[in-house]
Every structure is written in structure tokens, then in C-alpha cells.
Amino acid sequence: MAAERCAVVGVGQTRHRSARKDVSMAGLVREAAVEALEDAGMTWSDIDALVVGKAPDMFEGIAMPELYLADALGAVGKPMIRVHTAGSVGGSTAIVAAKLVEAGVHERVLTVAFEKQSESNATWGLSVPMPFAPPLVAGAGGYFAPLIRAYISRSGAPRHIGHLVAVKDRRAALRNPKAHLHLPDIDLKMVEESFLLWDPLRYLDTCPSSDGAMAMVLGSERVADASAGPVAWVHGMALRSEPTMFAGRDQINPQAGRDCAQDLYRQAGITDPRRDFDCAEVYVPFSWYEPMWLENLGFCELGEGWKLTEAGATGPDGDIPWNMSGGVLSSNPIGASGMVRFGEAAQQVRRRAGDYQVELKTGKALGHAYGGGSQFFSMWVVGSDKPQ
Amino acid sequence: MAEPLVADHVLEYPGGYTRSVGPVIGRFLTSLRDGRIEGVRLADGRVLVPPTEYDPLTSNPVGDDWVAVGPRGVVQSWTWVERPRPGKHGLDRPFAFALIRPDGADTAMVHVVDAGSADVMSVGMRVMPRWRAARVGSITDIEAWVPLADGEEPQPAPANTAEVEGDTVNGIVVPIRLEYRRSAGVATTRYLLGLKEHKILGERAPSSQEVYAASRGTDPKTGEPTSIVVEVQDRGTITTFCVVNIPGLSPLAPEVPYVSAQILLDGANNTFFGLIRGVPVDDVRMGMRVQAVWADELVADHTSIKWWEPLDEPDASYDSYKGYL
Amino acid sequence: MRDVAVISFAASAVERDDLQNEVEMLTPVIHEAVGNSGIERTEIGFTCSGSLDYMQGGPFAFVLGLDAVGAWPPIRESHVEADAAWALYEAWVAIQIGEVDSALVYGFGKSSSSDIYEVMSMQYDPYYMLPLWPSMIDVAALQARDYMESSGRTERDFAEVASRSLGNAKSTPYAISARDASVEELLGAPMVNDPLRAHDIFKPCDGAAAVVLAAGDLARSVCARPAWIRGIDHRIEPHALGVRDLSISVSTKDAAQRAGAGKDKIDVAELHAQFSSEELILRDAIGVNGNTRVNPSGGALAANPIMAAGLIRIGEVAKRITAGEADRGLAHATSGPCMQQNLVCVLEGE
């Protein structure tokens, strides 16, 4: 469908930590951007345009910080676009950047997503009490925990499934030096004994709050063909949104997520995602969202997601590994988290995933992000081979 | 329609933003704390003040060639601020904002000139910093720039009276307080005024006929305005819930543990969040029937419904609410 | 490049809307733009919006905006934290790919909710600028004086811009500042931020705007005279004011050239000048001559609903092309302190 082909030709990301006190905001985004440029064998002047994404500006207390960051990111004299689509923003930002290439507007686009949550506090930033809005008495987990309960009830999943994901993703993070959480002793017992925050969610079922940034250089076919290193070709990308609340909304298995995946699979020629992907990096901020998204994304039948998790299918040695990098459960700079998923998927098909590299068979990987009240979705498929 | 509801709203992160500044901004702020102004030399020889970690035109990293600049400076442009903003501006009398290029620098910085009168201000005028005695490593360590007469020698910064932490400045704290006045909007005003009358109002979507309790004014599926107001019951079914064990999530939160639930009201086609009380948390179930507990004194606010308590009714069947999960 | 046109436009602005919230303010504007487009809501291929969380003082302003759209079945949708002119750019790119043939673009914001001149200070460099709290007007005044120094223009030139804009605004239904005012009368008013007087500064207002874009044959089938986007480009300058030459707008000049502004005559130009001084800087950058009607709507001095006002410039030019009043026009949108970032869109009739 796309007018031009597009590939990821460079990837960079920061060390994610709860507080990166050693850098300024510009220093944080430059750490990721410079690494991506070096990976692509480029300098600032090679870049045609920039696309920057992040979640609410209240986190850092700057409105449209990309304006300030223009000088830091080599944007002077170039087009720069700022994307904000809630938690899905890291993914949508990459998609906006890739569209600039697919549309034939630019050949080399630098895209960066970041969050420096330690400048304030994410819980505060996400739930600034607004006059006349229904009070958020139970916080962010209070929104998602009831949906998880509903999923458990609807699917009949045993109560420990979420904890299995919590352990799996933290173990994966031990192979990823850039991950925020490194918990060498993580096991089921540790998760089960962690504080029960929002029953059924325990502390270790939830994601951390991180400072971090992710960057990618996207190139045209000409640029990708000339690239010295491996590239990840974009085989498809899709966005879908639905309203926060409406009569008959399925909040556990949102239609927007299903439609987004179907659109994506059509573009990328995916008929059986479990077979056709080598792996997936999926936005799982609460452990139970792994089985929920397994179903939503069509990796199994409805109600069967937890069985894949329980059988270890999504583990590093399973038939369809999910979140080999440790996922959102191990690093969560909110605005960047989606792009980390997209970029980690790219690194896998480039065979650049270091100690958490999966074996490539089909050479295709899924990157996924979602946000808001499970209402904003962005996804892409990247592959080792050039799309037909 | 009654007067629309409006309310004051303050956006302020408690304690101020904690900004880590990195090595270059950190060095500049450290020099301000010491009563000096420093710039950094760029690859093309220009001296950048205030400095950044990168050349603002090329984004290449700056080197380590630091240059003392000022303290004399020249005004490149200015404007006069007749009414200082309390809590924002450092001076409580009229002053100028100006672009000031310190001697030895090739770029200008935005800062304050305490000139007394706009008549004193001109492009090209010579200025010098007036340092604060207590300097913490902030751009405001220069309280203001002041006119410098011909032949006048700038005063050196007085000895720092502030308690200094560490050799270098690693971070700053920036308080930000913004004041707003927010409108509830037509539909929310209708709903909140209904609560004051002990009524939960919903609005009917024109094409689907579905009823939205606490409507935000449109049918979210079509974007069509909802304006047919209907009363829904103050009783309903818990579709799903969680038990909250974290204290202090909100000033309105009761003692932990408590239950936060999605409730499908009788006569409505959407759920909304409510607290469940009057029942041990372990006894709360999906499908449980509940009734609103109203405040003694009703006001046009969500707090008019205090919480929800179980009804002595059999649980609703899963089929009756499964379409609302 | 695919031919893409503006086929429908709607806008609203009032000085202060205490009655409606943002979504209620936005809803009729979207409905008008979609209703007049000849394309069914559910047939629109892509939706993109622009808004700013700091205008409402809380996160996720754009989320409830979806309630006005009717995002069901689920839609392809994105959002820029910027003026909706940049949302239009993103939509134009999406249509180029060929996957979709139409797009709804909208922007909205209420400046009356706060002291908007102060709130926009939140865009500054957080280490060196923000702690001093210069307002949006303060920095515009610094730029205005810099421009006077280098160009020899005077406060009278600013007043002439204001006088013409306020007069033109009389025919703009959503204008909040519209009146006949002579230059002499305007110059008799006191300074607000020397060298700027009240007439040189936009008045805060609440408002929204929406545009529907369509490609090629679809545009021709629903619109008698589509306003074709012949060129669109945007560029950014350094953020640090002391690094820039504030008396010129190099990013506007660059964007205008890349959008092909100079290839032919420009009948009408809508420039997003929030301060009268900015119009002069923009005219210089674009190279507007006496044959071009500048800001026939009154421009942002007539109504500047922030986050929609740049999109309105595109809509106003398109409206005149569709009405047959102009064959070729230029629209400009700006973003950031002292016009840091600028977008130029060249539109033509057939």
C-alpha cells in the first residue's frame, strides 16, 4: 500500500533508571538520539526531519518541550513534529515518522520519544484532579485492576497467571543492561509476597516509573539499501482509537485493538501471528495484560491467552517469545515505552538484541503500544527481509 | 438553564519540579553561584552564553573551552513590564525584560533590567549584574541587571550567604503554579445540579436511544449531542471492581482496604466508578446489587453520592452485565 | 505527490465561553465541517487533532475531544501537541501514502481558562528562561523592538497592521476584535509592553476549528472548487532567543520557498501573526507584495483561538479559493516563542 518502502536503519536508547539525575532533559534525549545516529552511520546533518513523542507535558513541567529540544536534536532548519497520543505515543510517534518516509516526503527521519518522570511524579502527572471530573479515588491501578478481575472471571484463568508474567519479564530484563529494574532473585514467591496494591494486582505485577528515551533513524529504501549495518523493514503499521466510554464497550478486549491488529496483519501478510512472528514486544504495564493482549492480538482464541502464558509459550524459549527486553514491567518511561517496544522489535529482526536475541525463522516481529483507557493503539510489523 | 458551574483550579506540582541539569548547565549555574558568568566556546569560535551541552545551530557537543564573560553587558532589545507578576517575577516594581549580551559573548541572554523607568532603557545601553547575596545556583542568582554609567566599575558579587551544597550544581528546583478557572460545561452542569436534587440524570443518545448517566454531552459513538434528559435509578449492579490497599491515593479515599467498582445503573447503558462500603471487602462480588448512599447535605458535586452499599437483592446474572465489561 | 485539497472548513471563537467546556465547544464545529464536506463521518479515513494540555491545566485534553468526533467504529487517529496546522500536515502525509483518501483535522482550546500569556511561558527553556517568567507578550515585544531597530519600521507601521486587521475582521463571523480604528486613534493609546500597545496584541479567546481534506477524484466529486494544497512545508529555528536574529523569520522564508510560494502570484495570504509586528516580519520573509491581500479575515488579531488559529489560516485561504474569490493563496501557521517554528501552505483552485 505504501508509496515507498521504509526501514529502521539505526536504534538507540538510554539506560532507563528511576531517576537519571546525571543528565539534563536534553542530555537524556541526546543519549538515545546520538546512539541511533551512530548506529545508522549518520550525523545530525544527515537527518531530514524529526518526530518527537512523549506523554503529558505536566510530567516535566514544560509545554511542548520539543521546541526547547530542537537545538539539542539537530532540528534547526528542519521540520519537527510533536506527537501525543497518551500511552501509545511512543508507537504513534514512530508511525508518524515512518509515514514521512513511506509518503516519499523525506528519506532520513530521526524519531525520539522520552519521559523524565523524576522531574515530578508520574502518579501526580497522570491524575491531576480537575474540577467537575469524577474524582479518581483509586489511582491508575484502580482503573485497570477491575478490568483484570473481569478478565479473570470471563476467562477462568488461575490467579497466578499474572505473577508468571511478572517473573518472566523481570528475568528477561536481567539480560538487558539498559532495563530499569534488575531483580536477580525474582521468583513466583517474591511476586506473591509483594504488597497487594489493587487486588488482584500486586506490587510486582505493576510497571516501574522510569526516566528514559528511545530513538530510531528511519530511512527510505535507497538509504536502507546503502546501510552498512542490518536494517529492519517496516512491513505494516496501524493506528486505531475508540472513545473512552460508551454503551457496550468491551474494555477487556477493545475493538480498536482488534481492528488495529487486523489492519496490520493484512498489510504484513500475517495470517497466524503465533506462527508468523518470531517474537513480539507488546505494551504490558500490568502483568495480566499479557494474556489479555494475546487474545486481543489474535495469538490465540478468546479466553485462551492465559494458557499460552502458563505453558511458557511467551517465554524466551517458548514458541512465541513476548517482551524479551523485559518489557514495560521492567522499564517504563511512559512517553518512550511504546517506541521501546517498536525499537526492540526492530533490534530482534536486525539480530542486534544482544543477550536477549531470539532465533529468527520468519524474520518478523511485532511492536505494540496502547494508551488511555485501553483506547489508543499503535502497532507495526518489522522484518529482516524487504517487503514484496 | 441555570448558571453554568465554574470553579478555580490550580496546577502546581507540590514542592516544585526537580530538574537535574547535567554537566554544562551545571557548570554555568555553579559559576553564577560563585558570582561569575561563564560561556563556552563553540567550534566556530563563537562564545555561547548561557551555555548548552550542544551548539544550538549544529547540535554538536560543545567542548571544554570555558570563557569568563561580562560582567558588563549590552542591551540588544528590551520591553517594559509595568505590572510585575507576584510569585513569578523577582522584582515588585516595574522593570524591563531585555536581551543582554555580556561582553565577550557572541549570544545574548534574556534577563531582567532594574532601571526604574522605561525612559532609562535603550538599545545599546550598558548594564551590569546585581548579584543576590544568597546564591543557590540559579539564573535568578543575578537578581537583575542595572544600568552602568560611563567609567563605572561593576561591583563584584558579595560573598555568598547561602548554604552551599556540593562543589557543583547538579539540579534546580523550579516551583510552577498556574491558576485556572474551569467550566463544567452544559451537560456536566446539568448532571451535577441533578445530584443536588437527589437525582442521577442521564442523557439519551438520539440515534441509538442508549442512555448515558453523567453524560459528557455527546453520544461518544457518533459525536451527536445528547440533550434528552432522563432520570436513571440510584441503584445498580457492580460489573467489576478492585480492592484498594494503598492509603492516601486521594483526599477522598476512605481507610484501606476499600472497594472501587464499576457500577451499571438501572436505566443506564454505561458504567461509572463508585466506592462500595457497608460490606466487608471480601464479600463484594461482580453482579452484586448496590444502592447509592447520599450525603446529608446535597451539593452540585460528585460528593453528593458518598458511596454505594449492597441491596438486599439476589445478584444480577452475568448475562445482564457482560456487555458492559 | 497526490493532489490533496481542503474541501470543508468551520471555525468558532468567542471571548469567553463559561457555558460550554472544550468538547461542547468543539462538537458543532466538527459537525459543520464534516456535514459540509459531502463525506460521511464513518467514511473519513484519518483523523488528527491539535491541542495543548497546559491550556486546560490538566493532562489528556485530546482524549475527551474524541467524544465530539464519534470514534466508533474505531478510527485511524492521531494527535499533535501543537497547533492543528501541524495536524493537517500529518494528515496530508497520511493521504500521500494512499491508504486513506480523506481526513478530518481539528484544533481547539480555551484561552479564557487562564492567563494565557503567562501559561504559554511554559514553552520556554526550563533552566534559563522559565524561572524569570517573561510572558508571551514580553518576548514578542523583544522581537518587535529588534525588528524596529533593524528595519527602521515604527510603531506606526504596527498600528497600520492593526487598523487594517480590525477593519477586515468586521466580515469574519467569529472575530472577537473587529472595528474601524484609525492609525492615529490607535497610536493615542498607552503602551502595554513598550513598544507594543493593546491593538498590537491578540486578545485571548476560546474557539475551535475543523477542516476536511480529500484527495483527487474524491475531492472533485464532493466539492465544486476544491482548494488544492500545492505545497506545504514547515521549519524550526533555535529555541534560545539570544541565538536567533529575531528581526527576520528564516524558518518562514525557508518553508515558503519549499512550499513553492514564489512560483506564481499570491492573491491572498493568511498569516498567523499574533502580534502586529509579526505580520511585518512574516511579509518580509515570504516576500508578499502589494498585489496580495493579507489577512482579509483580520488574522489572529481578530481571533486567535490558540491551537486552532494556525489551522484557521489554512481554512480561510481555502474558503476564498472555493468561493472563487482567489485562485492562489498562502496560509501560514506559527508555533513557539517568537515564532520559533513556522508552517507555510500554498493552495490553488483549478
Describe this structure in words.
- The complex is a heterotrimer of chains A (388), B (325) and C (350).
- With 388 residues, chain A is α/β, with parallel strands linked by helices.
- Helix content of chain A is 35%, strand content 18%.
- By secondary structure, chain B is mainly beta.
- Chain B contains 3 helices and 20 strands.
- Chain B has a 5-stranded antiparallel β-sheet with strand order 8-7-6-9-10, with no helix packed on it. In chain B, strands 18-17-16-19-20 form a 5-stranded antiparallel β-sheet, with no helix packed on it.
- Chain B is elongated, with a radius of gyration of 31 Å.
- Chain C folds into 2 domains: 4-115 and 204-227, Thiolase/Chalcone synthase (Peroxisomal Thiolase, Chain A, domain 1, 3-Layer(aba) Sandwich); 125-198 and 228-348, Peroxisomal Thiolase, Chain A, domain 1, CATH 3.40.47.10.
- In chain C, helix 11 (276-286) links the parallel strand 9 (268-270) and strand 10 (293-294).
- Classes of the chains: A alpha/beta (388), B mainly beta (325), C alpha/beta (350).
- At the A-B interface, helix 1, helix 5 and strand 5 of A face strand 1, strand 2, helix 1, strand 16 and strand 17 of B.
- Strand 5 of chain A pairs antiparallel with strand 16 (235-244) of chain B.
Which descriptors would you attach to this protein?
heterotrimer; A: 388 residues; alpha/beta; nine-stranded mixed β-sheet; two-stranded antiparallel sheet; 14 helices; 11 strands; globular; B: 325 residues; mainly beta; five-stranded antiparallel β-sheet; 3 helices; 8% helix; 36% strand; elongated
What is the topology?
The complex is a heterotrimer of chains A (388), B (325) and C (350).
Chain A (H helix, E strand, L loop, with lengths): L5 E8 L11 H16 L8 E5 L11 H5 L10 E4 L5 H14 L5 E9 L5 H5 L12 H17 L5 H13 L14 H6 L2 E4 L1 E2 L8 E10 H5 L6 E10 L13 H14 L4 H4 L2 E3 L7 H8 L8 H7 L15 H4 L3 H16 L14 E8 L4 E8 L5
Parallel strand pairs in A: 2-3, 2-4, 9-10
Antiparallel strand pairs in A: 1-7, 1-8, 4-7, 5-6, 8-11, 10-11
Helix pairs in contact in A: 3-14, 11-12
Chain B lengths: L5 E7 L4 E4 L1 H12 L3 E5 L5 E2 L17 E4 L3 E9 L13 E8 L6 E5 L12 E6 L10 E6 L23 E4 L2 E7 L2 H11 L3 E5 L6 E3 L14 E5 L2 E10 L13 E8 L5 E6 L12 E6 L10 E6 L7 H4 L4
Antiparallel strand pairs in B: 1-12, 2-11, 3-4, 3-5, 6-7, 6-9, 7-8, 9-10, 13-14, 13-15, 16-17, 16-19, 17-18, 19-20
Chain C lengths: L3 E11 L7 H14 L10 E5 L2 H4 L4 H9 L7 E4 L3 H14 L4 E9 L5 H4 L16 H16 L3 H14 L14 H5 L3 E3 L2 E2 L8 E10 H7 L4 E10 L13 H9 L9 E3 L5 H11 L6 E2 L4 H4 L6 H14 L5 E8 L5 E8 L2
Parallel strand pairs in C: 2-3, 2-4, 9-10, 9-11
Antiparallel strand pairs in C: 1-7, 1-8, 4-7, 5-6, 8-12, 11-12
